[in-house]
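INTERNAL AUDIT FORM
Audit reference: QA-55
Scope: verify that the stored structure record matches its stored sequence.
Auditor: D.O.
Record contents follow.
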Amino acid sequence: MKKNSVVSFNSGEYVVYPTHGVGKVTNIAKQTIAGSELELLVVNFDKDKMTLRVPMAKLGQVGLRKISDDLTMKEALATLKGKPRIKKIMWSRRAQEYENKINSGNPIAVAEVIRDLHRSENLAEQSYSERQIYEQAVERLASEVAIYDNTTVEEASKKLLDTVASRNL
């Protein structure tokens, strides 16, 4: 059995849970569940009004990670400036691929979704589902960029949209 590198999380620290986005570690608690005592990392997601309790032994499996480093953030922002790569497959298949990228928790993959679905003002309108996926991707990446840059989610979102729009200039 392969041993994962142990990452320690502290109370008050921001973390990224792949399928839910950025949350804040509120506590590391011991709780007895089904007769066995577990050490749990308690993560609070204010936006969704949700609290997750993740067993410490499962942290590697669920993909919980710290906020991205400089290199990853620079690469994600550079990805936004790239040329959109839209596959010529059915929308339902592409939508599923975009959802998987968003839920991967990888900021570069989320940036790819934003890049590929971004429409400038003079292009055709997006479908409802396209717009939903696009907004979810922007929100997910903006929440991490906001913590990284120590700004609000709105400012981070504007930064992302300005970056992706700058490729059209």
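Auditor finding: record pair retrieved intact. DSSP finds six helices and five strands in the chain.
Action required: none
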